[in-house]
Amino acid sequence: MTHRVNLLVSSFVFMIGVGSVVGTLPIVLRQLTTNEVEISLAVTVWGLVYLFSNIPAGLLADKVGANKVIPVAFLLNIPIGIIMFLGSTPLDYALARALEGFLEALVWTSVIGLSVKREKNVKIIGVSGVYASIALGFVLGPLLAGSLLAISYRTPFLLYSLCSFISFFVTLPLFRAESIRFSAQRPKLNFGWKVTSPLLSALTVGLVESLIVVYAPDLSSHKIGISSQELLSGYYLFGLLGQISITFLHNVVLTEPYLLAAFLSSSLITLYLPESMILISIGWLGIINAHVSSRSQAKIAEGMQGVESTGAGIANFAWSLGYFLGAPLYSMLNARRLSPQKAIGFIFLVMLLIQLLLAVLEIRRRDSTISK
Fold this sequence. Notes:
mainly alpha; globular
């Protein structure tokens, strides 16, 4: 088994476990408490810890070696599922999710960094392969969790531990692969257009996905005949198709006009399609967000040769910032006057205007430099 296959298989299996937890956690918490603050804390603490762990995790992976960090991170995830299976209070789940957030930061900064490092030519191909595995796992995870709930509403947590163990076993050969090294250099980032634009793109995807995940019950409530779990599985299924399509469309996806067209089309579709046609909007968002996520990682990695895991951490930080803030900001600022679907449309519209403004400023900067 090649190292690339190790990474893709372990990512897929691990995300089955993660998807099973995401689909089960709200159900379990509501059986333990009716306090919405406690429930929200247990659900969102993952995002907060993941947010602040990404950059340190990337730095650690570049210093120690991503190939050594990956199996250790999977191994340390095994007890988390057991803790959640045995949990009796919301605090137990909050602590478990906090640990999960830190360890997932280690996993994904290392996996993405190593995948990009090994992809010598088109780095977006390395990123899209990992994201395709993540999407496929996330499609199956909630569905498997739904089946396991018939046995016990806590059984999906044991699936998380099992998936973590399998991923550890699959990636164990990486630990012994001494040839996989990262250069010991300080990461340098010039926060100009080439970095700011992909960071804003990753932030946009995080904001949108936060609303999709948290308000899936609202999005699926418009007499479309599917559950919120099926809606999420559909979103990640189209995300999988989006990642696969990058193999054939990467030259287009990496262009600047594509990004602007993606934001504009997503805004128009979510703002003007009736909410009874949410499946079309969700399918489109799954494909576009898949393209934009891989594009952001690849663009940042291009400017961080030798410290790709740190670059992955920075991109993940931007995404997780959006994911952490999206739903809370919507609930605080909107007071439900605007549906989640329309709010997603406005997010894309605002981010499109910001991207256009930055593009104009970059063109003026270039023209000024040339004239001098």
